[in-house]
UniProtKB/TrEMBL annotation:
Gene: tyrA
Residues annotated as domain Prephenate/arogenate dehydrogenase: 4-292
Protein name: Prephenate dehydrogenase
PANTHER family named among the record's database cross-references: PREPHENATE DEHYDROGENASE, PREPHENATE DEHYDROGENASE [NADP(+)]
Keyword line: Amino-acid biosynthesis, Aromatic amino acid biosynthesis, NAD, Oxidoreductase, Tyrosine biosynthesis
Entry EC no(s): 1.3.1.12
UniProt family annotation: Belongs to the prephenate/arogenate dehydrogenase family.
Reaction(s) the record says it catalyses: prephenate + NAD(+) = 3-(4-hydroxyphenyl)pyruvate + CO2 + NADH
InterPro entries, sorted: 6-PGluconate_DH-like_C_sf, ACT-like_dom_sf, ACT_dom, NAD(P)-bd_dom_sf, PDH_C, PDH_N, Preph/Arog_dehydrog, Prephen_DH
ACT domain segment(s): 297-367
Gene3D superfamilies linked: 6-phosphogluconate dehydrogenase C-terminal like domain (1.10.3660.10), NAD(P)-binding Rossmann-like Domain (3.40.50.720)
Species name: Oceanobacillus kimchii
Length: 367
């Protein structure tokens, strides 16, 4: 494909990560727009983009492809603004918003004959925000949903795929309705629950002031996403409101069932409930093509001594194991902590665990 001029409008975590991947793995020219000038300056100074403008309509006229990566409400505003632009040529516009129904509804109103709109949503992210948190490899192996406005725009869909393939993502084409239902279940609703669990802990802290000190791995794992950007999540809930309301009703019904099991102390039924959840959860991480990237975790007990973590990492690096993620789950003064090492393949998981065990480390494997 010939060199394209790609405008990233919204150079935060997601826009910045896409820009970094395109910059690292193609010859395309990257230009930027953002309402925050310090973000634009940072992106220019660090070489993520080669040019920027603080006027969307001006800078859009230079582009062949426009990637909108701002909050959902702002993305809708930008679609409306782009509709007014006199483009000197045909442009492809895509977005990254976490909800697709509202975006495609806005795209349907486009009258500008020079715009082909293809909705997009990379299914990976972080609880961090802003260009400084962006990473070229953020979407590696992640599902990247495309929701084209016009399925017959095959040539433009291929162009977008080819540009975004620099992120090393896996594409999945979905209708906005099915996207919003699926991400509602697997991404948006869990966020609501994570926030509500934090609220419950906060409420009970009034009774037990020492309670936060008991928050160990489990609470931290299940509530990590509650530390994400509140504005972004409010925007997501607002635009996926009807689905969220439906899932809440569904959840309340599920909780009533669970309440009954607990109140009647149905041991076998509770065991079955937990067991079938475990089986389904364990199966999710084995599905290579699933929406959840497959990670194979090894838990290593480490002692709280300086250099202990670096030593484990060095042992695995010497054996050429490629660690995809490292997390320190608990390190408290003077006692054993746990290191979670994530690998992309089961082979690496098993072999790295064997290597560490042979050197006297206590390890545990979990998928
Ligand atoms: N964070 C995630 O995990 C994640 C994952 C996938 C998709 N998304 C979606 O991607 C989009 C961006 O999210 P993010 O996490 O990168 O947020 P972010 O806060 O890191 O970045 C958003 C950027 O958009 C800019 N911006 C705000 N209003 C703007 C406007 N009117 N015009 C131009 N720029 C504007 C901000 O200055 C910021 O640089 C959102 O629509 C979000 O739903 C987020
Ligand atoms: O990794 C995280 O912290 C995320 O929450 C990322 C996550 C998700 O997995 O739910 C959140 C919102 C996006 O639209 C896509 C991905």
């Amino acid at each position: 494909m010939k060199q394209q001029t790609i405008l990233i409008a919204g150079l935060g975590l997601i826009g910045g990560s896409i820009a970094r991947a395109i910059r690292n793995f193609s010859d395309h020219k990257l230009i930027g727009f953002d309402v925050d000038e310090s973000t634009l300056k940072y992106a220019k100074e660090t070489g993520i983009i080669s040019y920027y403008d603080t006027n969307l309509q001006h800078v859009a006229q230079r582009a062949d492809i426009i990637i909108l990566a701002a909050p959902i409400t702002e993305t809708i505003n930008m679609i409306q603004k782009l509709d007014q632009v006199e483009f000197p040529k045909q442009v492809i516009v895509t977005d990254t918003a976490s909800v697709k129904g509202a975006i495609l509804t806005a795209a349907q109103q486009i009258n500008n004959p020079n715009i082909t709109f293809i909705g997009g949503h990379p299914m990976a992210g972080s609880h961090k925000r802003g260009v400084e948190a962006s990473k070229a490899h953020l979407f590696e192996n992640a599902i990247y949903v495309l929701s084209p406005l016009d399925y017959e725009a095959e040539e433009q869909i291929e162009v977008i795929k080819s540009v975004l393939a620099t992120t090393k993502c896996k594409f999945l084409v979905l209708k906005p309705e099915e996207h919003d239902e699926m991400t509602g279940v697997i991404s948006h609703f869990p966020h609501l629950i994570a926030s509500s669990l934090v609220h419950q802990a906060k409420k009970w802290e009034r009774t037990h002031a020492y309670l936060p000190n008991l928050a160990a791995g489990g609470f931290r794992d299940i509530t990590r996403i509650a530390s994400s950007n509140p504005q972004m999540w409010q925007d997501i809930f607002h635009h996926n409101q009807s689905k969220m309301s439906y899932f809440l009703e569904d959840w309340i019904e599920e909780m009533s069932h669970l309440k009954l099991l607990i109140e009647t102390n149905e041991k076998n039924e509770i065991l079955n409930y937990l067991d079938s959840a475990k089986k389904y959860r364990d199966g999710l991480s084995k599905k290579e093509q699933g929406a959840i990237p497959s990670f194979y975790d090894v838990y290593v007990d480490i002692h709280d001594q300086s250099g202990a973590i670096a030593k484990v990492v060095q042992i695995l690096a010497d054996e050429n194991f490629s660690i995809k993620n490292i997390e320190i789950l608990e390190v408290r003064e003077g006692i054993t902590g746990v290191l979670r090492l994530s690998f992309h393949t089961q082979k690496e998981q098993i072999e790295s665990s064997k290597k560490l065990t042979s050197l006297g480390y206590e390890t545990m494997i979990q998928n």
